[in-house]
User: Which sequence fits this backbone?
């Protein structure tokens, strides 16, 4: 959160209408995303109650688990639906020529993209994946392999969701929050219905604020899940659950089926409003132009997806319940790298992000006042090095030290070093030296030199990234080794869900 | 003291007081700066009834499904005289077999399912003291449904922990049975923290009991045992957690509650939150009057209040109507420290208001952000 977003939040609250933030979409949106809403049963961990999913806005598919008894049939159907969607992404592949570090390989031309309403649903899917991927496979029951595979994919997807810039599994509220700032608190923004009311109020509403107020009306409000609200539990679910349990005890098959049908109808009407909101949000986001880096990040997503498919085909062991130390450190390093890379690419692509950084002191902008294109200095060997210099006059505070390396949106590969920061009256003069991207004295790249008067924004350059070297598992000291032998997670395997 | 009670009684009106319990004590630590909550809780006012009467959403309403699930899990653990619990605790605490015995204080001295709190408390007290002084040959290792007493702002509050375990080397452990899962050894951190804060209340109460008999506080361990369903099953697992932080935190907040008289002094005379129930027990108090009465006590609203306070939606409406920055979340509130309302902040930004001495820096930053945003609209760079 920057002061700029705080200011816009206040403007939104004051005017009653959401404010535009970034106007460029930084996450790829598939033409055929898999929309997925999940409800969990109150009480047990990760026991699904219902899942609504599909790629067609007019034909959602609803899967309902019975209130008690086995969820295996429902999970089997869910596994088939998700697997069919993922398989469709593997239909075509492209050839990637060999590079210096990698051999030639094939890559799928598509990757799965699942859109869910909120971060809580991501967490629920993560729990579900944790449960399912350790289920034992029973050769008598073909569903069991599909369910285990579903667990594997859910773990992969929710893992990707932790990676900034990944578009494999996106919570809709966070996605919308990148582009619009509402006049309510970030906590309330996690609710899709009110957030969307702020952003895209119905035509008859006077303002986004009014629409959000209307959306909260308990008579019509439906939380997007995965938790159902207490009133719905008590007033609607409890009677049906009781009827089902009663029929089950008495072994009245017909009555059981009738109750399940009623539950189906109830949950369909409960989830339909959120389903429609999801597609409304999708249309809004699809209308935004893509930022430059978006396609490249989607390429990475496809690479990751292809790698995962290969892993499943060749090895296929589930990810451990808890990473051991090295794997956890690798994962953390990847996440940090992804976060800095995503931030740097957004800053290069998006004027709003640069504006935000200017309010947090991580960037400054202003017109170029003087240029010294001929500036050279003597290197350690005595050879002349071409280091053009320029001075920028900025109204922004510059809390940076000389020596800091900067990047600029006009030439993403160029680097600028701060030589001197001189506060003048009102504005600050910053003298910069171009240290990369300008070529050499013999083969200069003059395009990198700005014209005097050009308005430039300089952001802190991302550090050059190298994956730290980690020891192999047998080289890891016991203090940082695998899970200790008496760890409870060790005895998990083969433990299925119980009949209740 | 009685005058304090009388004044709190006036605030509450005719309704019987809702006593503090471990849950409300835990909530105290969630938002300790809220005078409104401190006062309403001290007076034992039913906040849920207030919210219902004001026609507001009731964020803390309990789902019957959640309650049933929790009760079923607890029954499963304490069934057959605590048989499933014993091996769990033996592992978690290192008890040896011969020491384990179990007593349920729930139906002590009567045939009813639940004996009166006072009686259960007296029994708990004698059991615990005799165990602590080793007067009895039969060491009571597990005490189910004990009742403890804690002094909160000068009042005796009854608390009902799930189980108290007693170890041979003389240390008591509080055991809490909770129905949220521990998945691969890790519980949900928010739920675990709430459970540990509740357990902290029991630890303090137990220490108070022992201190009354001249026993040192370290006879009650800081380590609390949580019994939860393991992973995705209903098999229980016991995990020891250190509640040291929560115990310190809670006892500090309980000490702070002594400032009640000052809060009461600030109220206008004749303030009351009485719902004035009519003959049919329906509240007859005009809503406007109630809202005005609530407005006399300063709240400290944050959007997170909905997770632990029945009145959250009332305070939210109030914060919205007053245009408070806190209504937009803690990030905005902290960014604008020192400026309470959105209108002031925007007036400072737009130059309609002259900043006071303390507001100079933030005003400059706001105007800078505003300029950058304006540039963005005209000439994106």
Assistant:
């Amino acid at each position: 959160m920057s002061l700029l977003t705080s200011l816009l939040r206040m403007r939104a609250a004051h005017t009653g209408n959401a404010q535009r933030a970034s106007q460029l979409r930084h996450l790829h949106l598939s033409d055929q995303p898999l929309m997925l809403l999940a409800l969990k049963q109150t009480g047990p961990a990760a026991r699904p109650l219902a899942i609504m999913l599909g790629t067609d806005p007019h034909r959602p598919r609803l899967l309902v688990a019975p209130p008690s008894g086995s969820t295996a049939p429902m999970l089997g159907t869910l596994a088939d639906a998700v697997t069919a969607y993922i398989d469709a992404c593997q239909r075509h592949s492209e050839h990637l020529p060999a590079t210096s570090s990698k051999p030639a390989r094939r890559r799928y031309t598509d990757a799965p993209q699942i859109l869910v309403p909120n971060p809580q649903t991501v967490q629920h899917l993560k729990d579900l994946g944790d449960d399912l991927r350790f289920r034992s496979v029973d050769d008598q029951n073909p569903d069991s392999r599909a369910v285990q595979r579903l667990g594997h994919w859910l773990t992969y997807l929710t893992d990707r969701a932790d990676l900034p810039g990944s578009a494999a599994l996106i919570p809709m509220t966070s996605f919308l929050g990148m582009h619009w700032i509402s006049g309510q608190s970030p906590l309330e923004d996690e609710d899709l219905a009110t957030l969307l009311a702020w952003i895209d109020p119905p035509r008859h509403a006077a303002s986004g604020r009014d629409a959000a107020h209307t959306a909260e009306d308990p008579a019509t409000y439906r939380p997007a899940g995965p938790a159902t609200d207490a009133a719905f539990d008590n007033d609607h679910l409890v009677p049906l659950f009781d009827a089902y349990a009663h029929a089950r005890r008495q072994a009245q098959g017909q009555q059981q089926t009738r109750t399940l049908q009623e539950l189906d109808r109830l949950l369909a009407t409960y989830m339909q409003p959120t389903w429609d909101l999801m597609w409304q949000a999708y249309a809004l986001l699809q209308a935004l132009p893509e930022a430059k880096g978006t396609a490249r990040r989607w390429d990475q997503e496809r690479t990751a997806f292809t790698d995962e498919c290969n892993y499943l085909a060749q090895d296929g062991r589930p990810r451990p319940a808890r990473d051991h130390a090295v794997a956890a450190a690798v994962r953390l390093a990847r996440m940090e790298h992804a976060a800095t890379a995503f931030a740097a690419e957004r800053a290069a692509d998006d004027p709003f992000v640069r504006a935000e950084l200017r309010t947090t002191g991580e960037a400054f902008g202003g017109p170029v006042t003087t240029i010294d294109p001929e500036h050279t200095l003597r290197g350690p060997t005595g050879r002349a090095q071409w280091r053009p210099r320029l001075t920028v006059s900025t109204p922004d505070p510059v809390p940076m030290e000389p020596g800091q390396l900067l990047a600029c949106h006009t030439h993403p590969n160029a680097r600028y070093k701060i030589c001197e920061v001189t506060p003048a009256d009102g504005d600050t003069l910053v003298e910069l030296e171009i240290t990369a991207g300008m070529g050499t004295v013999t083969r200069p790249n003059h395009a990198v030199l700005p014209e005097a008067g050009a308005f430039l924004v300089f952001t802190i350059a991302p550090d050059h990234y190298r994956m730290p070297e980690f020891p192999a598992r047998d080289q890891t000291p016991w203090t940082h080794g695998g899970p200790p032998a008496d760890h409870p997670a060790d005895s998990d395997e083969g433990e299925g869900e119980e009949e209740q | 003291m009685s005058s304090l009670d009388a004044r709190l009684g006036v605030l509450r009106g005719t309704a019987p007081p809702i006593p503090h319990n471990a849950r409300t004590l835990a909530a105290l630590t969630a938002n300790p700066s809220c005078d409104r909550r401190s006062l309403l809780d001290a007076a034992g006012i039913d906040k849920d009834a207030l919210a219902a009467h004001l026609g507001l959403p009731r964020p803390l309403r309990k789902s019957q499904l959640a309650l049933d699930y929790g009760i079923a899990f607890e029954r499963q653990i304490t069934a057959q005289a605590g048989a499933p619990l014993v091996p769990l605790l033996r592992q978690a605490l290192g008890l040896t077999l011969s020491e384990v015995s179990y007593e349920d204080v729930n139906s002590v001295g009567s045939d009813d399912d639940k004996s009166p709190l006072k009686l259960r408390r007296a029994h708990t007290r004698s059991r615990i003291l005799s165990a602590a002084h080793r007067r009895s040959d039969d060491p009571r290792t597990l005490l189910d449904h004990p009742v403890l007493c804690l002094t909160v702002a000068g009042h005796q509050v009854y608390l009902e922990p799930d189980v108290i375990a007693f170890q041979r080397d003389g240390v008591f452990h509080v055991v809490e049975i909770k129905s949220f899962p521990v998945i691969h050894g890790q519980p949900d951190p928010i739920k675990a923290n709430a459970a540990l804060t509740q357990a902290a209340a029991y630890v303090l109460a137990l220490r108070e009991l022992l201190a009354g008999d001249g026993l040192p506080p370290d006879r009650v361990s800081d380590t609390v045992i949580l019994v939860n369903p393991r992973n995705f099953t209903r098999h229980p697992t016991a995990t020891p957690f250190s509640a040291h932080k929560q115990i310190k935190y809670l006892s500090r907040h309980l000490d702070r509650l002594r400032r009640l008289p000052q809060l009461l002094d600030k109220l206008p005379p004749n303030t009351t939150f009485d719902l004035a129930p009519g003959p049919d027990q329906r509240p007859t108090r005009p809503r406007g009057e109630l809202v005005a009465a609530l407005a006399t006590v300063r709240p400290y609203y944050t959007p997170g209040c909905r997770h632990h306070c029945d009145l959250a939606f009332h305070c939210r409406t109030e914060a919205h109507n007053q245009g408070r920055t806190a209504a937009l979340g803690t990030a905005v509130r902290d960014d604008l420290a020192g400026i309470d309302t959105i209108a002031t902040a925007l007036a400072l930004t737009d130059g309609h208001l002259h900043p006071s001495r303390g507001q100079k820096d933030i005003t400059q930053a706001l105007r800078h952000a505003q300029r950058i945003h304006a540039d963005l609209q005209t000439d994106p760079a």
